[in-house]
Amino acid sequence: METTDYEHGVVPQDQRKGWLSIAAVWIAIGIDLSGAFLGIELASGMAFWDAIWATMLGSLLLGLLAMACTYVGASTGLSTAMISRAVFGKIGGSVLAIAITISLVGWFAVQTGFFGQNAQIAFTEFTGIDVPVQIFNAIGGVLMAITAFWGYRSINRLSSLAVPLLLLLLVVGVVVAFVTHGTAGLDAPVDATFTFGGAVSLVMGIFILGVVLSPDMARWAKTPKQAMAAGFVGFFFGNSIILIVAILLARVLNQTELMTMYFTLGMGGVAVVVLILAQWTTNTTNLYSAGLAFSSISAKLGRRTVTAVLAVIGIVVGVIGAADVFVSFILVIGTLIAPYGGVYLASFFTGRRTARWAHGAAVPTVDVWSILAWAVGVLVAFGTTSPKDGPGFGWFTLTTISALDGLIVGFVVYLLLLGVRRLIGSVAPTDAAAETPANEVNA
After folding, report:
1. In 3-state terms, what secondary structure has residue 54?
2. d(CA 150, CA 33)
3. Where do the domains of the chain lie, and which CATH numbers do they carry?
4. Residue of 206, 232, 212, 267 lying closest to 39 (CA atoms)
5. Residue 318 · residue 141 · CB < 8 Å
6. What mean pLDDT comes out for the span 298-305?
7. What 8-state DSSP symbol labels residue 392?
8. Contact present, 239 and 203 (Cβ < 8 Å)
9. Helix, strand, coil distribution of the chain in percent, nearest 5
10. How many angstroms separate the CA atoms of 21 and 155, rounded?
């Protein structure tokens, strides 16, 4: 059963889009209040230029990684959850789809919490009336769910309209801040609470889930090359712009709330527009991908119905205060999801010509090798995360970026296990009847 978003199949070539419109979707996703919150935290916990360089390095790594992940999406035309079936097997793929769904619904709830907090500030500034934040959480969640329900084309149109306006408003805010408050605050001393590697990991962690799930959007690209161009521009620029703006405003204005900053600059109306557009364009894609992931479990599940149910769950979770665990949440998400990206990249680039990557092809019930590679990647990511930077053990250090550690290790371990698997296959007793399907499915 397929709908206009092809959640159970391949996006037809005549429905594919150009790279710029897809890049706009990712830029719109990147400009959100969670990025602003992280930028403010970095501004108060690092020297100014350290925070800027950590942002640029983290965003550059995301852009490069996105090029590989978007290539997979455009080449296969499949969603991330459908790709997981080829990598982990029927049950393994379904389990991962459920994990992705839970993660994205949780992220949707966190984002509605951010929306509610800032909408409450804006409403109080304009009216002087104190309305419970839960009301704004619910309103924001419903607004974001509407576009997700209608699907990718609706998201694409919204992003194309929102991105130019968002960029203009963010730049104007920085210019007004410099003109009215000068630049002295940029060099103000702060207590260092983040290591450079920890900051880069946070910068990556805030959007790493988007990179790993980028096939959901990249499958709409006309060619793999256009998907790669859209991925690099969208993730590098989209992730860095809101962080840099937040760092600059927090330093210059010495404030800790984005809405308060814009009201301080006399731009309260602009703040409301930025709030609505930034959260709408970002959070609607979380719910959209969650609907894609869960509906991939069975052809009987329609994406729109699933999306509506998940929206209700996410709004309820957001209303009860999921935003309170923001930093820990994105660190855990990055640690768990990033290794999956490494595994599916390794699986695709070593086996894309095998039968299992064709839509509707037979796949094993569970691919233990792929799951083992992912588990090792997760363990390493937790092992290299310093407890002072978030949930982790701090056993050792690789790149100093735990999310990247997990992805690289997942990639490498899959390749090593692939070599072991082929070695075992080469010494096993030959049985033509048994070998042919095994080679087609598991090679």
Report:
1. helix
2. 23
3. 18-327 (1.10.4160.10)
4. 206
5. yes
6. 83
7. S
8. yes
9. 80, 0, 20
10. 10
φ/ψ of 221, rounded to 5, equals: -75, 145
184: burial class by Cβ within 10 Å (0-12, 13-18, 19+)?
exposed
Whole-prediction pTM value?
0.83
Cα 30 → chain centroid: 9
Contact 56, 228 (CB under 8 A): no
Residue located via tokens 């924001």: 140
CB contact at 8 A, 161 and 311:
no
**Sign of the four-CA dihedral 55, 61, 67, 68:** negative
What is the per-residue pLDDT across 236-288, written as a single tens digit (0 to 9) for each?
A: 999 999 999 999 999 999 888 887 888 888 888 887 887 788 888 888 998 99
- Rounded CA gap, 355 and 69, in Å? 20
Q: Which amino acid is at 193?
A: T
Quick check: 334 and 402 in contact, CB under 8 A? yes
Nearest residue to 315 (alpha-carbon basis) of 137, 104, 136 = 137
Token match 């997760």: residue? Answer: 378
CA distance 339 to 344: 9
Distance CA(394)–CA(327), nearest Å, equals 17
Residue found under tokens 């792929």: 370
Is residue 325 classed as helix, strand or coil in its secondary structure?
Answer: helix
Question: CB–CB of 369/418 below 8 Å?
Answer: yes
